[in-house]
Amino acid sequence: MKNQIWQIRKAESAISTSLLIRGGRVIDPANDFDDVADVLVVDGKIAAVKPDINFEAHYEYNAAGKIVTPGLIDMHVHLREPGQEAKEDFVSGSKAAVAGGYTTVATMPNTSPTVDNAALVRAMVKRAEDIGIVNVKIIGAVTKGQHGQELAEMRDMISAGAVAFSDDGHFDDNAKIFLNALDYLHDTGKVIICHEEETSLVKDGVMNEGKRSALLGLKGRPTVAEDIAVARDVLLAEYTGGRVHIAHISSARAVDIVRDAKKRGVNVTAEVTPQHLTMTDELVDPADASTKINPPLRTQKDCDACLTGLLDGTIDMIVTDHSPHAPEEKDREYIYAPSGFPGLETSVGVLFTELYHTGKIDLKTLIAKMTCNPAQIFGLDAGTLSIDAPADITIIDPELAWTVDAKNFYTKGSHSPFVGREFKGRVVATIVRGNLMKLNQW
Ligand SMILES: [Zn+2]
């Protein structure tokens, strides 16, 4: 059954040049549009968005009762190429993206070897285009080998197609190197995505430092490690005028620091994950490493602060930090298991269930955080249903109830703390450049 979506896509793309999506609730925050309408796609581009379109399309999709949005964008995924294909590859990761409603994903460079030079960026861009299931963007490393010692050839990587830079997985402890990186990129408009945990404070830590870690006897990673790192990078952005993007923010104090910096006009933006919005360290079970992530799951106070920051504009976007590992790697004791879990296929379910259906966020705000906001910050030609925009579209059934089962994952990763959870709200179709991929195995 799983292969069905690809067969449909191939058959359609061979004959079809037009697609009419009928009668959905179209939410396009970039154009401040939220109404029931039809969406017409011709030759891979948006041709019209209005009620009752009269057009003989090659294919019609009945979206009555569904939500039609610009294709979702995830600026923080780990597709693990090159070198770590046992965890994930561009094909499995792209299929997971489709299943989760993502039409554009940006993959991090902490691979083997590190994506820290133009030749490798060029090869990855070509590989992404050859596979062509979704739009895969390449993020280059800030420093050579992500060792934090010497700047990587970032300008060459821009020429080769890198959309942003990050030493994700690591904090760049050397402030001078990081300042140089911001100066180096200053006139390029490119953003540095920062993993914010001061290294000496999180050494050997495996979960949030607090009551729960004390109870479990596990070494903690304190929020102050994140707060210090965010404060430093905000100050260096202010000093240099460079652009800093805070990755997977998780601490209440860090949200305050970003909010204050934005008020002063600092070039800082931020992202948060579904897990940091909705899960706490109370869920950490030493017998199950699926909750082990960096930065770790924090407290309810931190979750609440992240949600407040998301709603008031301090936090600009939601990302999954999709970080699959081979099941046998994650099947180890908590202290030895690698950090991260796959998130592409569960994020819409989590966010609709925990934030939308509970009335904590409205749909237009939620969709903006996953479409036009990342597109605008990273300069992507995506995230809108404007006429002539690439026809990347996501269709969501907001009421569809489902249970997360790792057996249905397209990702190679299987250990997720969301496995077994019941969600309401699911992606039912994903359209990339006009190609409809029906997810009809459910
Ligand atoms: Zn990270």
Can you describe what's shown?
With 442 residues, the protein is an alpha/beta fold. It folds into two domains: 4-68 and 389-438, Urease, subunit C, domain 1 (Roll), CATH 2.30.40.10; 71-378, TIM Barrel, CATH 3.20.20.140. Helix content is 32%, strand content 22%. It has 15 helices and 18 strands. Strands 1, 2, 3, 4, 5, 16, 17 and 18 form an eight-stranded mixed beta sheet that branches. It has an eight-stranded parallel beta sheet with strand order 6-7-8-9-10-13-14-15, sandwiched between helices. Strand 8, helix 4 (154-160) and strand 9 form a beta-alpha-beta unit. Helix 3 packs parallel to helix 4 and helix 8 runs parallel beside helix 9. The longest helix has 18 residues, at 223-240. The model is unreliable at 1-11 (pLDDT under 50). Bound molecules: zinc ion. Residues 168-169, 195, 247-248 line the site of zinc ion.
Write the layout of secondary structure elements.
Layout: H1 4-15, E1 18-28, E2 33-42, E3 45-50, E4 59-62, E5 67-70, E6 72-77, H2 90-100, E7 102-107, H3 118-131, E8 135-140, H4 154-160, E9 164-166, H5 175-185, E10 192-194, H6 199-202, E11 207-208, H7 211-216, E12 220-221, H8 223-240, E13 244-246, H9 252-263, E14 268-272, H10 274-278, H11 300-312, E15 317-318, H12 327-330, H13 347-356, H14 363-368, H15 372-378, E16 393-403, E17 422-432, E18 435-438
Parallel strand pairs: 1-4, 1-5, 6-7, 7-8, 8-9, 9-10, 10-13, 11-12, 13-14, 14-15
Antiparallel strand pairs: 1-2, 2-3, 5-16, 16-17, 17-18
Helix pairs in contact: 3-4, 5-8, 8-9, 9-11
Bound molecules: zinc ion.
